[in-house]
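ATP-binding cassette subfamily B protein: C-alpha coordinates wanted.
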Amino acid sequence: MHPDRTTDQWTPPALEPGKKQPPAEVRRILRLFHPYRARLALVGLLVGASSLVGVASPFLLREILDVAIPQGRTGLLTLLALGMIATAVVTSVFGVLQTLISTTVGQRVMHDLRTAVYTQLQRMPLAFFTRTRTGEVQSRIANDIGGMQATVTSTATSLVSNLTAVVATVVAMLALDWRLTVVSLLLLPVFVWISRRVGNERKKITTQRQRQMAAMSATVTESLSVSGILLGRTMGRSASLTKNFAEESERLVDLEVRSNMAGRWRMSTIGIVMAAMPAVIYWAAGLTMNAGAAAVSLGTLVAFVSLQQGLLRPAVSLLSTGVQMQTSLALFQRIFEYLDLTVDIDEPDEPVRLTAAKGEVRFEGVDFSYEGTADPARQGVKNGSGEPGAPTLSGIDLTVPAGTSLAVVGATGSGKSTLSYLVPRLYDVTGGCVTLDGVDVRDLDFDSLARTVGVVSQETYLFHASVADNLRFAKPDATDDELRAAAEAAQIHDHIASLPDGYDTLVGERGYRFSGGEKQRLALARTILRDPPVLILDEATSALDTRTEHAVQQAIDSLSAGRTTITIAHRLSTVRDADQIVVLDAGRVAERGTHTELLALNGRYAALVRRDSELAPTAVS
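Answer:
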Protein backbone atom coordinates (compact mmCIF):
# COMPACT_ATOMS: atom_id res chain seq x y z
CA MET A 1 0.00 0.00 0.00
CA HIS A 2 1.07 3.56 -0.68
CA PRO A 3 -0.78 5.98 1.61
CA ASP A 4 1.62 8.79 0.81
CA ARG A 5 1.57 8.42 -2.94
CA THR A 6 0.12 11.34 -4.88
CA THR A 7 -0.46 12.04 -8.55
CA ASP A 8 1.24 14.81 -10.46
CA GLN A 9 -0.74 17.39 -12.32
CA TRP A 10 -1.17 16.46 -15.97
CA THR A 11 -1.51 18.95 -18.77
CA PRO A 12 -1.72 17.74 -22.38
CA PRO A 13 0.75 19.90 -24.32
CA ALA A 14 -1.20 19.63 -27.55
CA LEU A 15 -4.12 21.39 -26.00
CA GLU A 16 -2.43 24.35 -24.36
CA PRO A 17 -2.97 27.34 -26.64
CA GLY A 18 0.06 29.46 -27.15
CA LYS A 19 2.49 26.92 -25.73
CA LYS A 20 5.37 26.23 -28.08
CA GLN A 21 5.78 22.54 -28.83
CA PRO A 22 9.13 20.79 -29.26
CA PRO A 23 9.96 20.36 -32.95
CA ALA A 24 9.57 16.96 -34.58
CA GLU A 25 13.20 16.01 -35.11
CA VAL A 26 14.23 14.27 -38.29
CA ARG A 27 16.02 11.57 -36.27
CA ARG A 28 12.76 10.68 -34.57
CA ILE A 29 11.02 10.37 -37.92
CA LEU A 30 13.84 8.19 -39.23
CA ARG A 31 13.46 5.89 -36.22
CA LEU A 32 9.97 5.06 -37.46
CA PHE A 33 11.59 3.33 -40.44
CA HIS A 34 14.17 1.45 -38.36
CA PRO A 35 12.23 -1.87 -38.19
CA TYR A 36 12.16 -1.94 -41.99
CA ARG A 37 15.81 -1.08 -42.62
CA ALA A 38 16.50 -4.33 -44.54
CA ARG A 39 13.78 -3.61 -47.07
CA LEU A 40 14.87 0.01 -47.28
CA ALA A 41 18.42 -1.13 -47.98
CA LEU A 42 17.08 -3.20 -50.87
CA VAL A 43 15.23 -0.12 -52.13
CA GLY A 44 18.50 1.81 -51.92
CA LEU A 45 20.28 -0.82 -54.02
CA LEU A 46 17.51 -0.73 -56.61
CA VAL A 47 17.62 3.07 -56.67
CA GLY A 48 21.39 3.12 -57.10
CA ALA A 49 21.32 0.48 -59.84
CA SER A 50 18.47 2.27 -61.61
CA SER A 51 20.36 5.60 -61.52
CA LEU A 52 23.58 4.06 -62.84
CA VAL A 53 21.75 2.28 -65.65
CA GLY A 54 19.81 5.45 -66.46
CA VAL A 55 22.91 7.62 -67.04
CA ALA A 56 24.35 5.06 -69.46
CA SER A 57 21.92 6.07 -72.21
CA PRO A 58 23.51 9.45 -73.04
CA PHE A 59 26.94 7.81 -73.40
CA LEU A 60 25.46 5.23 -75.77
CA LEU A 61 23.86 8.11 -77.69
CA ARG A 62 27.24 9.87 -77.95
CA GLU A 63 28.82 6.74 -79.45
CA ILE A 64 25.97 6.45 -81.94
CA LEU A 65 26.37 10.08 -83.10
CA ASP A 66 30.18 10.30 -82.99
CA VAL A 67 31.22 6.76 -84.02
CA ALA A 68 28.57 4.33 -85.28
CA ILE A 69 26.72 6.62 -87.73
CA PRO A 70 29.72 8.63 -89.10
CA GLN A 71 31.76 5.45 -89.63
CA GLY A 72 28.84 3.42 -90.97
CA ARG A 73 29.31 0.62 -88.43
CA THR A 74 25.89 -1.06 -88.62
CA GLY A 75 26.66 -3.82 -86.13
CA LEU A 76 27.85 -1.35 -83.51
CA LEU A 77 24.81 0.83 -84.21
CA THR A 78 22.50 -2.14 -83.59
CA LEU A 79 24.24 -3.04 -80.32
CA LEU A 80 24.13 0.54 -79.07
CA ALA A 81 20.42 0.89 -79.96
CA LEU A 82 19.62 -2.39 -78.22
CA GLY A 83 21.62 -1.14 -75.24
CA MET A 84 19.48 2.01 -75.03
CA ILE A 85 16.30 -0.11 -75.15
CA ALA A 86 17.68 -2.45 -72.46
CA THR A 87 18.49 0.44 -70.13
CA ALA A 88 14.91 1.70 -70.45
CA VAL A 89 13.50 -1.78 -69.66
CA VAL A 90 15.81 -2.35 -66.68
CA THR A 91 15.12 1.13 -65.30
CA SER A 92 11.35 0.57 -65.51
CA VAL A 93 11.53 -2.85 -63.79
CA PHE A 94 13.70 -1.45 -61.01
CA GLY A 95 11.26 1.46 -60.65
CA VAL A 96 8.26 -0.85 -60.22
CA LEU A 97 10.08 -2.98 -57.64
CA GLN A 98 11.26 -0.01 -55.59
CA THR A 99 7.73 1.49 -55.68
CA LEU A 100 6.25 -1.79 -54.42
CA ILE A 101 8.73 -2.14 -51.56
CA SER A 102 8.71 1.53 -50.53
CA THR A 103 4.90 1.73 -50.61
CA THR A 104 4.65 -1.38 -48.45
CA VAL A 105 7.14 0.03 -45.96
CA GLY A 106 5.36 3.39 -45.93
CA GLN A 107 1.98 1.81 -45.27
CA ARG A 108 3.47 -0.27 -42.44
CA VAL A 109 4.90 2.89 -40.89
CA MET A 110 1.48 4.56 -41.12
CA HIS A 111 -0.07 1.49 -39.52
CA ASP A 112 2.50 1.68 -36.72
CA LEU A 113 1.74 5.37 -36.19
CA ARG A 114 -2.03 4.87 -36.12
CA THR A 115 -1.70 1.96 -33.72
CA ALA A 116 0.74 3.86 -31.50
CA VAL A 117 -1.57 6.88 -31.25
CA TYR A 118 -4.64 4.71 -30.59
CA THR A 119 -2.75 2.72 -27.95
CA GLN A 120 -1.55 5.91 -26.29
CA LEU A 121 -5.08 7.32 -26.22
CA GLN A 122 -6.39 4.10 -24.68
CA ARG A 123 -3.93 4.68 -21.82
CA MET A 124 -4.89 8.30 -21.27
CA PRO A 125 -6.80 9.18 -18.08
CA LEU A 126 -10.49 10.01 -18.12
CA ALA A 127 -9.54 13.67 -17.59
CA PHE A 128 -8.04 13.86 -21.07
CA PHE A 129 -11.35 12.93 -22.70
CA THR A 130 -13.39 15.31 -20.55
CA ARG A 131 -11.59 18.23 -22.14
CA THR A 132 -10.84 16.96 -25.65
CA ARG A 133 -13.43 17.02 -28.42
CA THR A 134 -13.96 13.63 -30.02
CA GLY A 135 -13.59 15.14 -33.49
CA GLU A 136 -10.15 16.49 -32.55
CA VAL A 137 -8.95 13.01 -31.64
CA GLN A 138 -10.43 11.53 -34.81
CA SER A 139 -8.81 14.23 -36.91
CA ARG A 140 -5.36 13.47 -35.52
CA ILE A 141 -5.69 9.79 -36.38
CA ALA A 142 -7.43 10.18 -39.74
CA ASN A 143 -6.45 13.55 -41.23
CA ASP A 144 -2.98 14.09 -39.77
CA ILE A 145 -1.69 10.57 -40.26
CA GLY A 146 -3.55 10.37 -43.57
CA GLY A 147 -1.83 13.58 -44.65
CA MET A 148 1.53 11.91 -44.07
CA GLN A 149 0.81 9.18 -46.59
CA ALA A 150 2.76 10.78 -49.43
CA THR A 151 5.71 11.42 -47.11
CA VAL A 152 6.04 7.99 -45.55
CA THR A 153 5.14 5.96 -48.64
CA SER A 154 7.01 7.79 -51.40
CA THR A 155 8.89 10.85 -50.18
CA ALA A 156 11.74 8.93 -48.54
CA THR A 157 12.22 6.76 -51.62
CA SER A 158 11.82 9.75 -53.89
CA LEU A 159 14.46 11.61 -51.91
CA VAL A 160 16.99 8.78 -52.20
CA SER A 161 16.11 8.08 -55.82
CA ASN A 162 16.29 11.67 -56.97
CA LEU A 163 19.41 12.42 -54.93
CA THR A 164 21.16 9.38 -56.42
CA ALA A 165 20.00 10.34 -59.90
CA VAL A 166 21.21 13.93 -59.48
CA VAL A 167 24.64 12.84 -58.20
CA ALA A 168 25.07 10.21 -60.92
CA THR A 169 23.94 12.66 -63.62
CA VAL A 170 26.25 15.44 -62.41
CA VAL A 171 29.21 13.02 -62.36
CA ALA A 172 28.36 11.92 -65.90
CA MET A 173 28.06 15.57 -67.02
CA LEU A 174 31.46 16.33 -65.51
CA ALA A 175 32.89 13.37 -67.40
CA LEU A 176 31.53 14.79 -70.65
CA ASP A 177 32.50 18.45 -70.14
CA TRP A 178 33.21 20.14 -66.81
CA ARG A 179 32.82 23.67 -68.20
CA LEU A 180 29.26 23.10 -69.41
CA THR A 181 28.51 21.42 -66.06
CA VAL A 182 29.65 24.47 -64.09
CA VAL A 183 27.44 26.72 -66.22
CA SER A 184 24.50 24.38 -65.70
CA LEU A 185 24.83 24.37 -61.90
CA LEU A 186 25.48 28.07 -61.27
CA LEU A 187 21.88 28.74 -60.19
CA LEU A 188 21.51 25.64 -57.98
CA PRO A 189 22.14 27.47 -54.63
CA VAL A 190 19.44 30.00 -55.53
CA PHE A 191 17.01 27.19 -56.26
CA VAL A 192 17.74 25.51 -52.91
CA TRP A 193 17.18 28.79 -51.06
CA ILE A 194 13.85 29.34 -52.83
CA SER A 195 12.63 25.82 -52.03
CA ARG A 196 13.46 26.24 -48.33
CA ARG A 197 11.51 29.50 -48.20
CA VAL A 198 8.54 27.82 -49.85
CA GLY A 199 8.78 24.85 -47.48
CA ASN A 200 8.69 27.03 -44.36
CA GLU A 201 5.72 28.94 -45.73
CA ARG A 202 3.78 25.76 -46.47
CA LYS A 203 4.62 24.29 -43.07
CA LYS A 204 2.97 27.22 -41.30
CA ILE A 205 -0.12 27.04 -43.51
CA THR A 206 -0.33 23.25 -43.04
CA THR A 207 -0.43 23.65 -39.26
CA GLN A 208 -3.35 26.08 -39.59
CA ARG A 209 -5.08 23.82 -42.11
CA GLN A 210 -4.88 20.73 -39.87
CA ARG A 211 -6.27 22.69 -36.93
CA GLN A 212 -9.16 23.85 -39.09
CA MET A 213 -9.77 20.30 -40.31
CA ALA A 214 -9.84 19.12 -36.69
CA ALA A 215 -12.33 21.85 -35.78
CA MET A 216 -14.58 20.92 -38.72
CA SER A 217 -14.32 17.23 -37.87
CA ALA A 218 -15.35 17.99 -34.29
CA THR A 219 -18.33 20.03 -35.54
CA VAL A 220 -19.47 17.14 -37.75
CA THR A 221 -19.03 14.56 -34.98
CA GLU A 222 -21.03 16.59 -32.49
CA SER A 223 -23.80 17.97 -34.69
CA LEU A 224 -24.42 14.87 -36.83
CA SER A 225 -24.59 12.39 -33.97
CA VAL A 226 -28.04 11.17 -32.94
CA SER A 227 -27.97 13.45 -29.90
CA GLY A 228 -26.80 16.39 -31.98
CA ILE A 229 -29.52 15.93 -34.59
CA LEU A 230 -32.21 15.66 -31.90
CA LEU A 231 -30.96 18.77 -30.13
CA GLY A 232 -30.60 20.77 -33.33
CA ARG A 233 -34.08 19.96 -34.61
CA THR A 234 -35.91 20.33 -31.31
CA MET A 235 -34.20 23.67 -30.71
CA GLY A 236 -34.81 24.85 -34.26
CA ARG A 237 -31.08 25.33 -34.85
CA SER A 238 -30.58 23.15 -37.95
CA ALA A 239 -30.17 26.19 -40.21
CA SER A 240 -27.75 27.79 -37.76
CA LEU A 241 -25.69 24.60 -37.52
CA THR A 242 -25.58 24.40 -41.31
CA LYS A 243 -24.41 28.01 -41.48
CA ASN A 244 -21.69 27.37 -38.88
CA PHE A 245 -20.49 24.32 -40.80
CA ALA A 246 -20.43 26.31 -44.06
CA GLU A 247 -18.30 28.98 -42.38
CA GLU A 248 -15.89 26.32 -41.07
CA SER A 249 -15.70 24.79 -44.54
CA GLU A 250 -15.14 28.22 -46.13
CA ARG A 251 -12.15 28.82 -43.86
CA LEU A 252 -10.78 25.42 -44.86
CA VAL A 253 -11.19 26.30 -48.55
CA ASP A 254 -9.07 29.40 -48.07
CA LEU A 255 -6.35 27.46 -46.25
CA GLU A 256 -6.34 24.69 -48.86
CA VAL A 257 -5.92 27.22 -51.68
CA ARG A 258 -3.16 29.02 -49.79
CA SER A 259 -1.44 25.71 -49.06
CA ASN A 260 -1.48 24.61 -52.68
CA MET A 261 -0.50 28.01 -54.08
CA ALA A 262 2.20 28.84 -51.51
CA GLY A 263 5.41 29.40 -53.47
CA ARG A 264 3.86 27.99 -56.64
CA TRP A 265 5.15 30.85 -58.80
CA ARG A 266 8.64 30.60 -57.32
CA MET A 267 8.80 26.84 -57.91
CA SER A 268 7.49 27.36 -61.44
CA THR A 269 10.26 29.86 -62.05
CA ILE A 270 12.79 27.19 -61.10
CA GLY A 271 11.22 24.80 -63.61
CA ILE A 272 11.24 27.43 -66.35
CA VAL A 273 14.90 28.31 -65.80
CA MET A 274 16.00 24.67 -65.72
CA ALA A 275 13.94 23.88 -68.84
CA ALA A 276 15.57 26.82 -70.63
CA MET A 277 19.12 25.70 -69.82
CA PRO A 278 19.39 23.28 -72.82
CA ALA A 279 18.50 26.13 -75.16
CA VAL A 280 21.25 28.23 -73.59
CA ILE A 281 23.75 25.37 -74.01
CA TYR A 282 22.78 24.85 -77.67
CA TRP A 283 22.98 28.61 -78.29
CA ALA A 284 26.44 28.89 -76.69
CA ALA A 285 27.73 25.82 -78.53
CA GLY A 286 26.33 27.11 -81.80
CA LEU A 287 28.14 30.44 -81.38
CA THR A 288 31.48 28.69 -80.71
CA MET A 289 30.97 26.37 -83.68
CA ASN A 290 30.16 29.29 -85.98
CA ALA A 291 33.33 30.96 -84.78
CA GLY A 292 35.27 27.84 -85.74
CA ALA A 293 36.30 27.08 -82.18
CA ALA A 294 34.03 24.22 -81.21
CA ALA A 295 35.07 22.97 -77.78
CA VAL A 296 32.96 19.77 -77.91
CA SER A 297 31.85 17.32 -80.55
CA LEU A 298 28.25 17.16 -81.73
CA GLY A 299 27.75 13.79 -80.04
CA THR A 300 29.13 15.10 -76.76
CA LEU A 301 26.87 18.17 -76.97
CA VAL A 302 23.71 16.08 -77.60
CA ALA A 303 24.68 13.62 -74.85
CA PHE A 304 25.33 16.48 -72.42
CA VAL A 305 21.98 18.15 -73.14
CA SER A 306 20.29 14.76 -72.77
CA LEU A 307 21.91 14.37 -69.35
CA GLN A 308 20.96 17.91 -68.43
CA GLN A 309 17.35 17.29 -69.34
CA GLY A 310 17.55 14.06 -67.36
CA LEU A 311 18.80 16.16 -64.47
CA LEU A 312 15.79 18.49 -64.71
CA ARG A 313 13.19 15.99 -63.49
CA PRO A 314 15.02 14.64 -60.40
CA ALA A 315 16.37 18.09 -59.49
CA VAL A 316 12.92 19.72 -59.52
CA SER A 317 11.48 16.66 -57.78
CA LEU A 318 14.23 16.83 -55.16
CA LEU A 319 13.44 20.47 -54.43
CA SER A 320 9.71 19.67 -54.27
CA THR A 321 10.46 16.77 -51.94
CA GLY A 322 12.26 19.14 -49.63
CA VAL A 323 9.19 21.36 -49.61
CA GLN A 324 6.95 18.34 -48.95
CA MET A 325 9.13 17.17 -46.06
CA GLN A 326 9.00 20.56 -44.37
CA THR A 327 5.23 20.57 -44.81
CA SER A 328 4.97 17.08 -43.33
CA LEU A 329 6.94 18.14 -40.25
CA ALA A 330 3.82 20.00 -39.12
CA LEU A 331 1.83 16.78 -39.33
CA PHE A 332 4.50 14.73 -37.56
CA GLN A 333 4.65 17.35 -34.82
CA ARG A 334 0.90 17.08 -34.18
CA ILE A 335 1.14 13.28 -33.95
CA PHE A 336 4.21 13.41 -31.71
CA GLU A 337 2.29 15.74 -29.39
CA TYR A 338 -0.17 12.92 -28.72
CA LEU A 339 2.57 10.28 -28.44
CA ASP A 340 4.37 12.49 -25.90
CA LEU A 341 1.34 12.96 -23.65
CA THR A 342 2.05 11.94 -20.07
CA VAL A 343 0.18 8.86 -18.86
CA ASP A 344 -0.39 9.46 -15.15
CA ILE A 345 -2.54 6.37 -14.55
CA ASP A 346 -0.47 3.37 -15.55
CA GLU A 347 0.35 -0.12 -14.37
CA PRO A 348 3.28 -0.51 -11.96
CA ASP A 349 6.41 -2.24 -13.23
CA GLU A 350 5.47 -5.40 -11.31
CA PRO A 351 1.67 -5.41 -11.05
CA VAL A 352 -0.28 -7.66 -8.70
CA ARG A 353 -2.82 -10.07 -10.22
CA LEU A 354 -5.99 -10.98 -8.34
CA THR A 355 -6.83 -14.55 -9.25
CA ALA A 356 -9.88 -15.11 -7.03
CA ALA A 357 -11.06 -11.78 -5.69
CA LYS A 358 -13.41 -11.83 -2.70
CA GLY A 359 -14.45 -8.22 -3.19
CA GLU A 360 -13.60 -6.35 0.01
CA VAL A 361 -13.24 -2.62 -0.69
CA ARG A 362 -11.58 -0.17 1.66
CA PHE A 363 -11.08 3.59 1.53
CA GLU A 364 -8.20 4.45 3.87
CA GLY A 365 -7.73 8.14 4.58
CA VAL A 366 -8.72 8.99 1.02
CA ASP A 367 -8.28 12.56 -0.17
CA PHE A 368 -9.03 13.69 -3.67
CA SER A 369 -8.95 17.01 -5.45
CA TYR A 370 -9.38 17.75 -9.14
CA GLU A 371 -6.69 20.40 -8.63
CA GLY A 372 -4.28 17.49 -8.25
CA THR A 373 -5.40 15.72 -11.40
CA ALA A 374 -5.29 16.38 -15.10
CA ASP A 375 -8.91 17.40 -15.36
CA PRO A 376 -8.91 21.18 -15.79
CA ALA A 377 -12.60 20.98 -16.59
CA ARG A 378 -13.14 20.20 -12.93
CA GLN A 379 -10.30 22.22 -11.43
CA GLY A 380 -11.45 25.21 -9.46
CA VAL A 381 -15.05 24.02 -9.35
CA LYS A 382 -17.05 24.39 -6.19
CA ASN A 383 -17.72 21.28 -4.19
CA GLY A 384 -20.32 20.98 -1.50
CA SER A 385 -18.47 23.49 0.66
CA GLY A 386 -19.08 26.20 -1.89
CA GLU A 387 -15.40 27.09 -1.98
CA PRO A 388 -13.68 27.08 -5.39
CA GLY A 389 -10.83 24.59 -5.52
CA ALA A 390 -11.66 22.93 -2.19
CA PRO A 391 -10.90 19.19 -2.00
CA THR A 392 -13.65 17.05 -3.47
CA LEU A 393 -13.04 14.27 -0.92
CA SER A 394 -11.29 14.56 2.45
CA GLY A 395 -10.36 11.90 4.98
CA ILE A 396 -12.67 9.16 3.72
CA ASP A 397 -12.39 5.99 5.81
CA LEU A 398 -14.81 3.26 4.74
CA THR A 399 -14.82 -0.52 4.68
CA VAL A 400 -17.19 -2.50 2.49
CA PRO A 401 -16.89 -6.19 3.45
CA ALA A 402 -17.05 -8.71 0.63
CA GLY A 403 -20.60 -9.49 -0.41
CA THR A 404 -22.16 -6.50 1.36
CA SER A 405 -23.73 -3.33 0.02
CA LEU A 406 -22.83 0.30 0.58
CA ALA A 407 -25.07 3.18 -0.46
CA VAL A 408 -23.57 6.65 -0.85
CA VAL A 409 -26.00 9.57 -0.70
CA GLY A 410 -25.69 13.32 -0.43
CA ALA A 411 -26.41 16.60 -2.11
CA THR A 412 -25.24 17.40 -5.63
CA GLY A 413 -21.52 18.12 -5.62
CA SER A 414 -20.85 16.26 -2.36
CA GLY A 415 -18.40 13.86 -4.09
CA LYS A 416 -20.56 10.75 -4.51
CA SER A 417 -19.64 9.90 -8.10
CA THR A 418 -16.03 10.88 -7.55
CA LEU A 419 -15.81 8.33 -4.73
CA SER A 420 -17.02 5.61 -7.08
CA TYR A 421 -14.50 6.62 -9.79
CA LEU A 422 -11.60 5.84 -7.47
CA VAL A 423 -12.33 2.10 -7.18
CA PRO A 424 -11.87 1.24 -10.91
CA ARG A 425 -9.04 3.84 -11.13
CA LEU A 426 -10.78 6.24 -13.47
CA TYR A 427 -8.92 8.71 -11.25
CA ASP A 428 -6.16 8.14 -8.71
CA VAL A 429 -6.44 9.37 -5.15
CA THR A 430 -4.35 12.38 -4.21
CA GLY A 431 -3.99 11.11 -0.66
CA GLY A 432 -4.53 7.81 1.16
CA CYS A 433 -5.41 4.67 -0.80
CA VAL A 434 -8.23 2.49 -2.07
CA THR A 435 -7.74 -1.28 -1.68
CA LEU A 436 -9.33 -4.43 -3.08
CA ASP A 437 -8.85 -7.44 -0.84
CA GLY A 438 -6.07 -5.53 0.90
CA VAL A 439 -4.19 -4.63 -2.31
CA ASP A 440 -3.85 -0.99 -3.36
CA VAL A 441 -5.72 -0.62 -6.66
CA ARG A 442 -2.68 1.25 -7.99
CA ASP A 443 -0.66 -1.95 -7.58
CA LEU A 444 -3.09 -4.10 -9.57
CA ASP A 445 -2.75 -4.93 -13.24
CA PHE A 446 -5.51 -3.43 -15.36
CA ASP A 447 -6.95 -6.80 -16.39
CA SER A 448 -7.44 -7.87 -12.77
CA LEU A 449 -9.03 -4.55 -11.90
CA ALA A 450 -11.43 -4.71 -14.86
CA ARG A 451 -12.39 -8.31 -14.04
CA THR A 452 -12.98 -7.45 -10.39
CA VAL A 453 -14.89 -4.16 -10.67
CA GLY A 454 -17.95 -3.69 -12.86
CA VAL A 455 -19.50 -0.25 -13.39
CA VAL A 456 -23.06 0.56 -14.41
CA SER A 457 -23.63 4.27 -14.76
CA GLN A 458 -26.48 6.55 -15.69
CA GLU A 459 -24.78 7.20 -19.05
CA THR A 460 -25.29 3.89 -20.88
CA TYR A 461 -23.11 3.49 -23.96
CA LEU A 462 -23.99 0.98 -26.66
CA PHE A 463 -22.09 0.45 -29.90
CA HIS A 464 -23.75 0.66 -33.31
CA ALA A 465 -23.81 -3.13 -33.54
CA SER A 466 -26.11 -6.03 -32.76
CA VAL A 467 -27.45 -6.76 -29.29
CA ALA A 468 -25.29 -9.89 -29.18
CA ASP A 469 -22.14 -7.95 -30.15
CA ASN A 470 -22.85 -5.35 -27.48
CA LEU A 471 -23.22 -8.03 -24.84
CA ARG A 472 -20.15 -9.94 -26.00
CA PHE A 473 -18.07 -6.78 -25.58
CA ALA A 474 -17.89 -7.85 -21.92
CA LYS A 475 -17.06 -11.48 -22.76
CA PRO A 476 -16.05 -12.10 -26.40
CA ASP A 477 -16.22 -15.89 -26.06
CA ALA A 478 -19.68 -15.97 -24.44
CA THR A 479 -22.03 -18.62 -25.78
CA ASP A 480 -25.61 -17.96 -26.88
CA ASP A 481 -26.85 -19.66 -23.72
CA GLU A 482 -24.72 -17.33 -21.59
CA LEU A 483 -26.12 -14.30 -23.44
CA ARG A 484 -29.65 -15.52 -22.82
CA ALA A 485 -28.97 -16.20 -19.13
CA ALA A 486 -27.49 -12.71 -18.65
CA ALA A 487 -30.42 -11.10 -20.48
CA GLU A 488 -32.92 -13.05 -18.39
CA ALA A 489 -31.18 -11.96 -15.18
CA ALA A 490 -31.39 -8.35 -16.40
CA GLN A 491 -35.07 -8.87 -17.33
CA ILE A 492 -34.50 -7.87 -20.96
CA HIS A 493 -34.56 -11.30 -22.70
CA ASP A 494 -38.29 -11.29 -23.43
CA HIS A 495 -38.07 -7.93 -25.16
CA ILE A 496 -35.05 -9.00 -27.23
CA ALA A 497 -36.77 -12.24 -28.21
CA SER A 498 -39.83 -10.30 -29.39
CA LEU A 499 -37.78 -8.32 -31.91
CA PRO A 500 -37.79 -9.59 -35.54
CA ASP A 501 -34.03 -10.18 -35.53
CA GLY A 502 -33.75 -11.12 -31.87
CA TYR A 503 -30.17 -10.89 -30.59
CA ASP A 504 -29.03 -9.90 -34.10
CA THR A 505 -31.01 -6.64 -33.88
CA LEU A 506 -28.89 -3.53 -34.46
CA VAL A 507 -29.18 -1.21 -31.48
CA GLY A 508 -28.50 1.91 -33.56
CA GLU A 509 -26.13 4.80 -32.85
CA ARG A 510 -25.65 4.96 -29.06
CA GLY A 511 -28.58 2.54 -28.70
CA TYR A 512 -31.26 5.00 -29.81
CA ARG A 513 -33.48 2.19 -31.10
CA PHE A 514 -34.06 1.21 -27.46
CA SER A 515 -35.71 3.11 -24.62
CA GLY A 516 -33.76 4.38 -21.63
CA GLY A 517 -34.87 1.49 -19.43
CA GLU A 518 -34.09 -1.08 -22.14
CA LYS A 519 -30.62 0.34 -22.66
CA GLN A 520 -30.00 0.30 -18.93
CA ARG A 521 -31.04 -3.34 -18.70
CA LEU A 522 -28.79 -4.19 -21.66
CA ALA A 523 -25.94 -2.53 -19.76
CA LEU A 524 -26.81 -4.62 -16.71
CA ALA A 525 -26.86 -7.80 -18.82
CA ARG A 526 -23.45 -6.89 -20.17
CA THR A 527 -22.13 -6.49 -16.63
CA ILE A 528 -23.77 -9.74 -15.49
CA LEU A 529 -22.00 -11.52 -18.33
CA ARG A 530 -18.67 -10.25 -17.02
CA ASP A 531 -19.61 -11.46 -13.51
CA PRO A 532 -17.49 -9.02 -11.42
CA PRO A 533 -17.17 -9.56 -7.64
CA VAL A 534 -17.48 -5.79 -7.06
CA LEU A 535 -20.28 -3.74 -8.59
CA ILE A 536 -20.42 0.06 -8.84
CA LEU A 537 -23.89 1.49 -9.54
CA ASP A 538 -23.56 5.20 -10.27
CA GLU A 539 -27.13 6.57 -10.21
CA ALA A 540 -28.11 3.81 -12.64
CA THR A 541 -31.86 4.56 -12.36
CA SER A 542 -31.94 8.30 -11.76
CA ALA A 543 -33.02 9.20 -15.32
CA LEU A 544 -35.84 6.64 -15.51
CA ASP A 545 -39.55 6.97 -14.84
CA THR A 546 -40.99 5.20 -11.79
CA ARG A 547 -42.33 2.13 -13.64
CA THR A 548 -39.13 1.60 -15.64
CA GLU A 549 -37.06 2.26 -12.53
CA HIS A 550 -38.92 -0.54 -10.75
CA ALA A 551 -38.14 -3.02 -13.55
CA VAL A 552 -34.50 -1.98 -13.72
CA GLN A 553 -34.21 -2.08 -9.92
CA GLN A 554 -35.38 -5.70 -9.95
CA ALA A 555 -32.60 -6.49 -12.42
CA ILE A 556 -30.11 -4.61 -10.23
CA ASP A 557 -31.21 -6.56 -7.15
CA SER A 558 -30.65 -9.79 -9.06
CA LEU A 559 -27.22 -8.59 -10.19
CA SER A 560 -26.19 -7.38 -6.73
CA ALA A 561 -26.94 -10.63 -4.94
CA GLY A 562 -23.74 -12.02 -3.41
CA ARG A 563 -21.57 -9.18 -4.73
CA THR A 564 -19.89 -6.25 -3.06
CA THR A 565 -22.08 -3.39 -4.23
CA ILE A 566 -21.44 0.34 -3.99
CA THR A 567 -24.52 2.31 -5.03
CA ILE A 568 -24.47 6.04 -5.73
CA ALA A 569 -28.08 6.91 -4.96
CA HIS A 570 -30.23 9.68 -6.37
CA ARG A 571 -33.56 8.27 -5.23
CA LEU A 572 -33.28 7.08 -1.66
CA SER A 573 -36.04 4.53 -2.10
CA THR A 574 -33.53 2.34 -3.93
CA VAL A 575 -31.05 2.08 -1.01
CA ARG A 576 -33.21 1.44 2.05
CA ASP A 577 -32.03 -2.18 2.29
CA ALA A 578 -28.30 -1.42 1.97
CA ASP A 579 -26.09 -2.96 4.66
CA GLN A 580 -24.67 0.50 5.33
CA ILE A 581 -25.48 3.98 4.12
CA VAL A 582 -23.00 6.85 4.06
CA VAL A 583 -24.02 10.49 3.78
CA LEU A 584 -21.40 12.71 2.16
CA ASP A 585 -21.31 16.44 2.81
CA ALA A 586 -18.67 18.67 1.23
CA GLY A 587 -16.53 15.63 0.50
CA ARG A 588 -16.59 14.27 4.06
CA VAL A 589 -18.52 11.47 5.73
CA ALA A 590 -21.24 13.25 7.69
CA GLU A 591 -23.29 10.22 8.75
CA ARG A 592 -23.16 6.45 8.42
CA GLY A 593 -25.38 3.56 9.45
CA THR A 594 -28.41 1.58 8.32
CA HIS A 595 -31.60 3.17 7.04
CA THR A 596 -33.27 2.72 10.42
CA GLU A 597 -30.30 4.03 12.39
CA LEU A 598 -29.94 7.14 10.24
CA LEU A 599 -33.64 7.95 10.43
CA ALA A 600 -33.38 7.74 14.22
CA LEU A 601 -30.55 10.32 14.15
CA ASN A 602 -32.92 12.76 12.44
CA GLY A 603 -29.99 14.41 10.72
CA ARG A 604 -28.97 14.94 7.09
CA TYR A 605 -30.16 11.53 5.90
CA ALA A 606 -33.58 11.98 7.50
CA ALA A 607 -33.85 15.39 5.79
CA LEU A 608 -32.96 13.83 2.44
CA VAL A 609 -35.61 11.13 2.93
CA ARG A 610 -38.26 13.73 3.75
CA ARG A 611 -37.33 15.72 0.66
CA ASP A 612 -37.40 12.55 -1.46
CA SER A 613 -40.86 11.70 -0.14
CA GLU A 614 -42.16 15.17 -0.95
CA LEU A 615 -40.87 14.95 -4.53
CA ALA A 616 -42.12 11.39 -5.11
CA PRO A 617 -45.72 12.28 -6.06
CA THR A 618 -44.45 14.84 -8.55
CA ALA A 619 -42.09 12.33 -10.07
CA VAL A 620 -44.85 9.75 -10.47
CA SER A 621 -47.21 12.21 -12.12
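Residues 74-123 form the longest helix (50 residues). The radius of gyration is 35 Å.

Cheers.
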